[in-house]
Amino acid sequence: MKNYAGIIFAILLLAIGCEKDDSPSDTFSNSLTLGTGLNPSNLFELTGEGTSFPAGSLIYFRLESKEDMAGSPVRINIKAAGSDIDNIDYPVLQEYGHIYLSSFTAPVPGNYTATGILTTGNKTIATITFITQ
Questions:
Q1: Dihedrals φ, ψ of 24, to 5°?
Q2: Which of 73, 80, 76, 82 is nearest to 32 (CA)?
Q3: Model-level pTM?
Q4: Which of 10, 24, 32, 72 could form a disulfide linkage to 120, CB 3.0–4.6 angstroms apart?
Q5: Which CB contacts under 8 angstroms, 24+ apart, belong to 6-13?
Q6: Is 104 helix (H, G, I), strand (E, B) or coil?
Q7: pLDDT for residue 16
Q8: What is the rounded CA–CA span in Å between residue 62 and residue 47?
Q9: Which helix (H) or strand (E) segment is 47 a member of?
């Protein structure tokens, strides 16, 4: 009887460990963060995260989607005083995933809003306000 109890316990542990998690909301969130570089030991992390950057510098971004991006190209829309300044389109890198990292050049000095958009379906993921000096 002890052998059967051990086998049943092992099967239960295996079943719990292999259970599919259909709730990506527990792992990912809709966010857009900006930084000055990428962490060389983990390229999914930004370094120098912030909202103030030198004008003309390279700004790295990390767009994270709660739901799978499903191979959608990404657009970063930059606005100043409510008017579009630039739409920067980025190509599809893979057919699945929740995180997109790339960069853009900081505009001339001013206050800006950047919005991360999945162009398939024109779905806004997140927005962040930043300044350049």
A1: -65, -15
A2: 76
A3: 0.79
A4: 72
A5: none
A6: strand
A7: 32
A8: 11
A9: strand 42-47
